[in-house]
Amino acid sequence: MPERRVTVASKVGLHARPAALVAKAAAAQSVQITIRKSDTEPVQAGSILGLMTLGAGHGDEVVLAAEGDGADAALDQLAELVGSDLDG
């Protein structure tokens, strides 16, 4: 299963606006994407509630994973988003 490790760039972490943007982008993919911190169980990246309960803060490393046709492209897109400052 392809994975991407990425550092959360948003100063507020994956909460509020950044969580909504990531969830929307993940839900739009043709594959199901999960996200986890190294010490947690994966949650659905397309779920705002899942992202917020993950508790990923600024500077935390998260692991994105997906399986199926288009998984690599979907993970690349989502990793770029998570690694961007989405606070604006």
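The record above closes out task 2.4. Task 2.5 opens with a second protein, given below.
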Amino acid sequence: MATDLATELRVLRRDEWDAWYDNLVRAFGGGPGTQEERELDRSLTEYDRSLGVWDGRTCVGTAGAFSFRMTVPGGALVPAAGITMVSVAATHRRRGVLTSMMRRQLDDVRSWGEPLAVLTASEPAIYGRFGYGAATFQLDAEIDTSRAGLSVPAGTDDVRLRYAAPADVLDACEAVYAALVPGRPGMLARRPGWERAGLLDPESERDGASPLQCVVAERDGEVTGYVRFRTKLGWDVGGHDGTVRLEDLAALDPATDAALWRFLFGIDLTTTLTVRGRPVDDAWQYLVSDIRRCRPRRRDALYLRPVDVGAALAARTYQVPVDVVFEVEDAFCPWNTGRWRLSGDAKGASCERTSDAADLELSVRELGAAYLGGVSLTALAAAGRVRELRAGALAEAAAGFGGAVAPWLPHGF
């Protein structure tokens, strides 16, 4: 497939990976990185799902698609193409390179029978025109642990904490993570190899902080949670002023969760806990004595687009019964355009083509934003992005699409 007279788009070959990856690194303004990082990325690359655009022997565009399974409302794991490693050389901008890769990629995803495509966006403005909507958000915070305390639930003191080398307890930590995946939409079932990403510890990315540390939590001899973190000591005229940087935390029960947060709050010689990428409904917010001392803020995380509207909507469940006809507009994937009747409840759903009158009108981008339950159809309607054609249809659909927990992407890809 050609993007213009000078370039060729094709599936990545193994002997082309280094040139392909070098273009990616250059496009993101990075240096060569560590050999460990490079080799991990090489091992995770799915060659038959990766594309390159070539100008002669020079790679000028890259795009990949990981074969993920993602939790959707109701707990099912649904195939989702994890769009990744997208770059265009600065020398070849505005020549249709990106559009050609997005076109081929979504055609491929459809042919693979995967109803969803997901990505994290370095530049969110780019992907809306290809039908991706912001479906999950994440919580960041800078917690003043010298002024914000914690009130923990019963049973917290029964949790035993111990330090461990991150690699030594990797299997136990992965078991905790896997147990949590079905309970929260947006979480990804990690394929073999992905667990290594959480252990990468290049000194260049520590910003003066310690090597990666790990503490595991145990109850009745079983690992029920873990936390990975770094510390960076600091001093001023008033004494110690160190920082704890949270990298990853998972817990199977409220007591374990509270015990791990209490540990982070109480690390000696530190007064700040830096939190990135947590669920927007993370429980620690309801344990702290003063939320203002935590400076919480929300930002976008996972972008989602239905590749097959009918299969995507039928794959999840709905909080309350719904029976609604959507008029969907999808200029980039026209096979989705038209009317779809969604009928479902907490036990299951169906979504089929229909000629019945539409109840709600929206684009595939808004459908993707609302799909995991983290963005309300009512809010989108208030922004003029969803149009109600039958009185009461918006409230019915919005209630059905809502979720008991906020969707969350636990790590990038």
